[in-house]
Each structure stands twice: as C-alpha cells, then as structure tokens.
Amino acid sequence: AGAGGKYSTPYALFEAEQRRPAADTRPAFIMRIDETYVKIGTNDPIAPGNHEVELSIPGTPGSSQSTRVKMTIEAKPCTRYYFAAQRSTRSARDWEAFVAGSEPIRECAKRFPDAK
C-alpha cells in the first residue's frame, strides 16, 4: 500500500462514546458499517457521506443481553462521531442509539483544508 492509504482522502471516524457517558447512557459499539463487519478494537476511516451503522448496546449490568440497532448517519469529512444509547427511564429496556457528540479530526482538517 502506498503512503497514506486509507488516510489519503478526507475521512470520518465512528467510535463508541466512552469519554464521559452519563448515568443513564451506555456506549453503543459499532458492529457493521454499510453491511461490512467492523472488528472490535479497530477504527478504520470511513468515506464521507451517508452510511448505515449497526450498533450493539450492552444490556443492564450483570446481563449478557445486548440490543442491536441500525441508524443512518451523514458523515461529514474530517469529523469523529461518538455513538451512545439511552433509555426513557431507569427501569425501561427501550435503549435508543444516538450520536452523543462529534468533533473535528485536526490532522485530517489540516491535511485537507478544503474538505467540507
């Protein structure tokens, strides 16, 4: 592979929210992007544009039951997205995935200043 490879064009990154999840919020782990399986622990760059993301939401503490949900994201160039899930009440099991936050990827923005 040539120098740069996957990082040779503007890209986005998808990650589980693990920075500071709130009490009723859980990280939502990326399982697939556009039907392509994502290996746990990897974070390969994604081309900007619309993507279907399948997320795994861990069950309640002590439970091995996880929930899978799909959502569509319009990924902007040079942006990192954090995925999480939240339920309507503490006792509910209706986990809903959402984008907990996003931030610019500085190295990408520096390398591709015209990416919008």
Q: Which characteristics define this entry?
A:
116 residues; 4-stranded mixed beta sheet; 1 helix; elongated
Q: Which percent bin holds the helix content?
A: under 10%
Give the topology string: H per helix, E per strand: EEEEEEEEH
Q: Structural class, from secondary structure content?
A: mainly beta
Mean pLDDT: 86
How many β-strand runs?
A: 8
Q: What's the assembly state of these chains?
A: single chain
> Treating each run of at least 4 consecutive H or I residues as one helix, how many helices?
1
Q: Compute the gyration radius: what is it?
A: 15 Å
* Distance, first to last CA: 26 Å
Describe the secondary-structure layout.
Elements lengths: L11 E5 L8 E3 L1 E5 L2 E2 L11 E9 L9 E9 L3 E8 L9 E9 L1 H6 L5
Parallel strand pairs: 1-7
Antiparallel strand pairs: 2-7, 3-4, 3-5, 5-6, 7-8
Describe this structure in words.
With 116 residues, this protein is mainly β. Helices cover 5% and strands 43% of the residues. It contains one helix and eight strands; from the N terminus they run ββββββββα. It has one helix at 106-111, and strands at residues 12-16, 25-27, 29-33, 36-37, 49-57, 67-75, 79-86, 96-104. The strands form two sheets. Strands 1, 2, 7 and 8 form a four-stranded mixed β-sheet that branches. It has a four-stranded antiparallel β-sheet with strand order 4-3-5-6, with no helix packed on it. A hairpin with a 2-residue loop joins strand 3 (29-33) and strand 4. The longest helix is centred in the last third of the chain and has 6 residues, at 106-111. The protein is elongated, with a radius of gyration of 15 Å. The two termini are 26 Å apart. The mean pLDDT is 86.
